[in-house]
Design a protein that fits this description.
94 residues; 3 helices; single chain; mainly alpha
């Protein structure tokens, strides 16, 4: 049980880091867009970069939010199954 809680905490930490990365992308995108609108460099390219940053940030944020919710709602049986699958993957790759 202790191992399960430690693994769950580690997975939650990873997903929270993903969310932070997503938030950084999302927060920097308006700056890029503003630079593009104000004419700093290639306007179209800057706007495309800002749009890509927003899209990537939103996708990562949505995925990590879903993963966090899934992690928090896993039952003990699901944890055992996940652990067995992970162990099997390591054996087949090793």
């Amino acid at each position: 049980m202790h191992e399960q809680l430690a693994e769950q905490a580690q997975l939650e930490t990873v997903q929270m880091a993903e969310q932070e990365t997503s938030r950084q992308l999302i927060s920097e995108a308006p700056k890029k867009l503003s630079e593009a609108v104000q004419g700093a460099g290639n306007k179209l390219q800057g706007a495309k970069v800002a749009q890509a940053m927003l899209s990537a940030g939103n996708e990562k944020l949505n995925a990590s939010t879903k993963q966090l919710a899934d992690i928090k709602h896993m039952s003990s049986d699901q944890w055992r199954e996940r652990k067995q699958m992970t162990h099997h993957d390591k054996e087949t790759k090793g």
